[in-house]
């Protein structure tokens, strides 16, 4: 009887740890997937620095965009842009638990540093974002806002 109880306990522990591992792997896969989508958006950008952003909650994408010109570069030499983060803030509210993914590509299609600028960090924070994953040349990084 005592022995039986112990076996059950260890079986349950094994089950729990297996699930924990799977969840972690799934999260890593999802982060990579959303960053790939952000990279795809970045590749569509008309700007010199090509940046894309994705707002996602779990498996659901809530908004995605590249950075864009505010005006036509042929009309206004200043070439002001909406940053990709600003674009997604214009398109969606940030619900609790949603994560922002920001990516930049160079002309060779290689991911580059895409850490949100201080203006976007402030805007994202006041919009309710808590976590931002961004690309760097050495791999993705997490930025915790607050
Ligand atoms: Zn910015």
From TrEMBL:
SUPFAM superfamilies, A to Z: Cytidine deaminase-like
UniProt KW keywords: Metal-binding, Zinc
Gene3D superfamilies documented for this protein: Cytidine Deaminase, domain 2
A Pfam family reported for this protein in Swiss-Prot or TrEMBL: dCMP_cyt_deam_1
Domain CMP/dCMP-type deaminase: 29-146
Domain of life: Bacteria
Database matches in InterPro entries: APOBEC/CMP_deaminase_Zn-bd, CMP_dCMP_dom, Cytidine_deaminase-like
Designated name of the protein: CMP/dCMP-type deaminase domain-containing protein
Organism: Streptomyces pathocidini
